[in-house]
Amino acid sequence: MTDLNKLTLAEARDGLRKGEFTSSDLTEACLTSIKAAQKLNAFVHDTSEQAREQAKAADARIAAGDAPNMCGLPIGVKDVFATKGQPTQAASKILDGFKPEYESTITTKLFDAGAVMLGKLNMDEFAMGSSNENSVYGPAVNPWKIDDRDLTPGGSSGGSAAAVAADLCLAATGTDTGGSIRQPAAFTGTVGIKPTYGRCSRWGVVAYASSLDQAGPMTKSVRDAAIMLEAMAGHDAKDSTSADLAVPDFEAMITGDIKGKKIGIAKEYRIDGISDEIAKLWDDGAAMLRDAGAEIVDVSLPHTQYALPAYYVIAPAEASSNLARYDGVRYGHRAQIDASEGIDDMYEKTRAEGFGREVQRRIMVGTYVLSAGFYDAYYNRARKVRTLIKRDFEQVFDSGVDAILAPTTPSAAFGIGEVTGKDPIEMYLNDVFTVTLNLAGLPGISVPTGLSSAGLPLGLQLIGRPWGEGDLLNIAHSLEQSAGFVSKPTKWW
Amino acid sequence: MSIDIDTARRVASLARIRVEEDALPELASEFNAVLGFIEQLTEVDVEGVEPMTSVTPQRLKRREDVVTDGDQQDKILKNAPDAREGFFAVPKVVE
């Protein structure tokens, strides 16, 4: 009964129900693998005591025949989710020592379904970053390696991706504001889905950009993504933007049949500088879907190139407003001040000490674009461009397209320290294929479909209709089966 | 549009983030890189386009205007860096 930590959610669920092992067995296997993986710096807060209690309770539920899908399954939770009595600091010094008195809706739902929380996972500070290097805990490390260099697992949900890829947990929660679930999934050979905006409650999720933030699962298979998303999704009166819609049985919607589905290929995604490798991966993916019975059609999303610049107005603007709450008064870090200094000095010093460099930069960019005289030129214009980006997608879906296929990232995982030069834009370009969906509120899933010539995982992204996660998961499952990606990182940690 | 050191200082102050004088030139140059990037938005014809307020077409839910929560003083103060006698304590604001 070794290697229980390597199971998928579906395999572990079925094994638990058959009595082949217990949740406590699964949990101990994961805790052991976490302890042996310190070099990955994926888990940053240990909640093993709570995990063992939850596992015991889950085993009792299973024995009593009351076992929802997630019951007894050990998962990791991104540090951005408020977890009652457990450290929650969104990888920021400014939330040092913060232990919420409440539980986020997502973790409440997962715990009610019987899931076991192994610990909190590393991330970019306040989910701002694409490499997990902007973290008070130091960078998380990708379990994939091709030479002496440590590679990034992507970001911001880098700890989640690294932990799932290295089999430290069966699955993990992530959040995605501009690609923070899908890009790390692609960098680590795992699956990640960002649901439609409003599908999962944001209550108790530390806010970055509220009109873009969505939580979602990061898993080892598409089926697992369906299982876990169903447990996370649903209306919540505590989040006014959460949609009052029934949550379908996503797993049952995975039928394997995609005959007659129309898959769009957007010419605007064939950007300059896309590598031959990524272009081939994309063509191969389209061929696989065609062989499975789908129809491949060319589509156009003419405002694609303006998505990143619009994002870098809207997201910092919302962040500057959201992060105003960190003032050293109600929670977290407070700077020391001299007797001669007043409350403004306290605010300014607290925020200078507490926020990392990238977070400070985004807050200040946001402050600037919202300031008098620039609001119309930047913020309002970006919101108008956002309307146009959403309209592009509406026109494509109105023409009968069921999903759009695109690369997830422009490249495979890069080395730690390689893309942190003076120019912040270089890092931002990682999100060129993912960020449009957040602006349009659409669901997107990244599926690993191949290896780069150097031997690193690469992912393709499928973009679905609003509230069409079930159909999207079905198409993604077909792609996953055709690609047959089974590679795992060789253990070096 | 180019950001000078005075503008960088003003933005830092509006954002309530202390930036030392010698760090301002670099900050201004980073702002310029980001603003240069978002400058592309001026190429887009947005004539007659409504700015997006909600990505999904929905009306925010209404509820009765009644108290639904409260009596949680201890919990609210629990994480405060300085709480005294049931209040958040801050440096003197009024002389």
Automatic annotation (TrEMBL), chain A:
GO-annotated cellular components: glutamyl-tRNA(Gln) amidotransferase complex
One GO BP annotation of this record: translation
Sequence ranges assigned to domain Amidase in this UniProt record: 25-473
InterPro entries xref list: Amidase (IPR000120), Amidase_CS (IPR020556), Amidase_dom (IPR023631), AS_sf (IPR036928), GatA (IPR004412)
Record GO terms (molecular function): ATP binding; glutaminyl-tRNA synthase (glutamine-hydrolyzing) activity; transferase activity
Full protein name: Glutamyl-tRNA(Gln) amidotransferase subunit A
HAMAP family according to UniProt: GatA
Reactions this protein catalyses: L-glutamyl-tRNA(Gln) + L-glutamine + ATP + H2O = L-glutaminyl-tRNA(Gln) + L-glutamate + ADP + phosphate + H(+)
Gene designation: gatA
SUPFAM superfamilies (UniProt xref): Amidase signature (AS) enzymes (SSF75304)
Nuclease listed as a keyword: no
Record lineage: Bacteria, Pseudomonadati, Pseudomonadota, Alphaproteobacteria, Rhodobacterales
Task performed by this protein: Allows the formation of correctly charged Gln-tRNA(Gln) through the transamidation of misacylated Glu-tRNA(Gln) in organisms which lack glutaminyl-tRNA synthetase. The reaction takes place in the presence of glutamine and ATP through an activated gamma-phospho-Glu-tRNA(Gln).
Organism, as annotated: Pacificibacter maritimus
Family per record: Belongs to the amidase family. GatA subfamily.
UniProt-listed Enzyme Commission number(s): 6.3.5.7
Name of a matching Pfam family: Amidase
Subunit record text: Heterotrimer of A, B and C subunits.
Active site as annotated: K78, S156, S180
Keyword annotations of the record: ATP-binding, Ligase, Nucleotide-binding, Protein biosynthesis, Transferase
Record field: transmembrane: none
NCBIfam families referenced in this protein's UniProt entry, alphabetically: gatA
Keyword Kinase listed: no
TrEMBL record, chain B:
Top-level taxon of origin: Bacteria
Keyword field contains ATP-binding: yes
Protein name as it appears in the record: Aspartyl/glutamyl-tRNA(Asn/Gln) amidotransferase subunit C
UniProt GO BP: glutaminyl-tRNAGln biosynthesis via transamidation; regulation of translational fidelity; translation
HAMAP family linked to this entry: GatC
Subunit structure: Heterotrimer of A, B and C subunits.
UniProt catalytic activity: L-aspartyl-tRNA(Asn) + L-glutamine + ATP + H2O = L-asparaginyl-tRNA(Asn) + L-glutamate + ADP + phosphate + 2 H(+); L-glutamyl-tRNA(Gln) + L-glutamine + ATP + H2O = L-glutaminyl-tRNA(Gln) + L-glutamate + ADP + phosphate + H(+)
Gene name of the encoded protein: gatC
Function according to Swiss-Prot or TrEMBL: Allows the formation of correctly charged Asn-tRNA(Asn) or Gln-tRNA(Gln) through the transamidation of misacylated Asp-tRNA(Asn) or Glu-tRNA(Gln) in organisms which lack either or both of asparaginyl-tRNA or glutaminyl-tRNA synthetases. The reaction takes place in the presence of glutamine and ATP through an activated phospho-Asp-tRNA(Asn) or phospho-Glu-tRNA(Gln).
Pfam families (alphabetical): GatC
EC id: 6.3.5.-
Record has Transmembrane helix as a keyword: no
Keywords: ATP-binding, Ligase, Nucleotide-binding, Protein biosynthesis, Transferase
InterPro entries from the UniProt entry: Asp/Glu-ADT_sf_sub_c, GatC
One term of GO molecular function: asparaginyl-tRNA synthase (glutamine-hydrolyzing) activity
Database matches in Gene3D superfamilies: Glu-tRNAGln amidotransferase C subunit, N-terminal domain (1.10.20.60)
Family: Belongs to the GatC family.
